[in-house]
Amino acid sequence: MMTMTTNSVVYRKKPQKARTNRYSVRVTVSALFLGILAWSVALNGIAQEISVHFIDVDGKTIAEVPAQRQEEQVYLPVDAVKQVFDPDMTDQYNYPRKRLTLKTKGKQIRLQINNLVVSIDPGGQTHTLPTPPIIIAQEPMLPITFFTQVLPDFDNLEAIYNPSLQKVQLRPKNTWTPMVTGNSVDWAIIIDPGHGGADDRGCESNTGLLEKDIVLTLAKQLQQISKQQGMQIYLTRQTDAKKTHLERIQVAKRNQAQLFLSLHCNASFSPHEKGIKIYLNNPKGELRFPSNVQSGPAGQRLKILAQANFLKQSRDFAHTMETELNFLTEIPVKIIELPLVALSDAYMPAVVLELGYLSNVEDLEKLSNAEYITSVAQAIARAFQRYISSINPSVPQTVEQ
Ligand SMILES: [Zn+2]
Question: Does the domain made of 180-391 have the CATH classification 3.40.50.720?
Fold first, then answer.
C-alpha cells in the first residue's frame, strides 16, 4: 500500500497518456490474477484461514487452533489433536498410501485421505465421518467432526459445536441425569412467554416480527426438549392469549414450581443497543424502590423479603444460563439486578431473560432464524440441568459406563 501511494505522487506530473497506459497494465495484471485464482478455485476450492476455539464447560479457553475453511467445511491440522486432547499424541503419515495413523491414550486411530471411515484399535471399532480428511497445501487435514464426534469419546466427553462462531465446547458426558425419582418428577419449572393476545404484542421489529411470537416459539421448544430430559415444564400461556401478571404467577404456585423463567425481547431507540440480558429481582439492586414502598404495608415488605430469600439461587441460575448462552453470542451476556415488581410475587428463584433487541439488525437477524431459536432452547435446557444438578447433590453427576 505504501509503495502504491508513493508511486501515484511521483507519477502525478506525467502526461495523461502515460497514466492511461499504466492503468491498462494494471487491469491486465488484475485479470490475469483473477484468471489464476478462478483456475485454482476450480482445482482445489478456496481454503480460508480461520481459527477454532475449544472451550471447557465453564467457557474457559482450552486452545485456539488455526484451521482452514473450504467449501463450507472446517479442517484442522493433525497437531490440533495434541493441543486440545493429548500433548503426547504421535502421528504418522504415509504419503504414497495417503494413510494417517494417530496414537493417543492407548488407542491407534487410522484414517485415510478422502475416506470417511475411521478405525480404532484395539477393539476394531469404526466410525463414519460426514466429511473425509483431505490434503490442503500438501498437509493432511482433519475435518472438525473428527474433533467433535470421535476424539471426545475417549475422555468420556461430549462436544457442542457452534459453526457460526467456530467454538467447540467440551463437557463431561451424562452430567445431567433426568430429575425423575420413581415415577414422580422432582422438578417443575415455569416458563413464562411474555405478553400475548391482540393488545399486548410486546416489541415489534420493522420486519413485522413480534416479541410475543418469538418467546412463545422458544417456550414450546424448551418444553419439548426438557420433557425428553425428564424435567417438567409448565408454560404460563400455550397460545397467543392475554394473561395477567397474577395469572402467570398462579401457574407457578399451582404447580409448586422451583424455578420461574420469564422470556422477553428488547427494543431500543438506539439501533446499536444489542445482546442478551438476564434480569433478576433484587430489591436492593441498581434501581431502588421509592421510600414509600420500603415503609409500606407489612404485607408488601414481606413479599419483597420473600423473593429476596431466593436471590442467591436466582443468581446461581442466572450465572449458569449466562455461561450457556455466552456460547451462542459474541457479545457477553449481561446480568442485571433490579427491584422487579413483576417477579416479586414469585416465591421461588426467578429470572427474566431478554433474548436480544428487535431494533438491532444483527439481533433481529438471529431472532428471525429458526435454527438460532432452537440453539437458544438447547442452551437454556442445558442451564436447567446444570443448575438442578448443582443444588441437588443426590443426582449422580456421571453415570458409569
Ligand atoms: Zn417484553
Answer: no
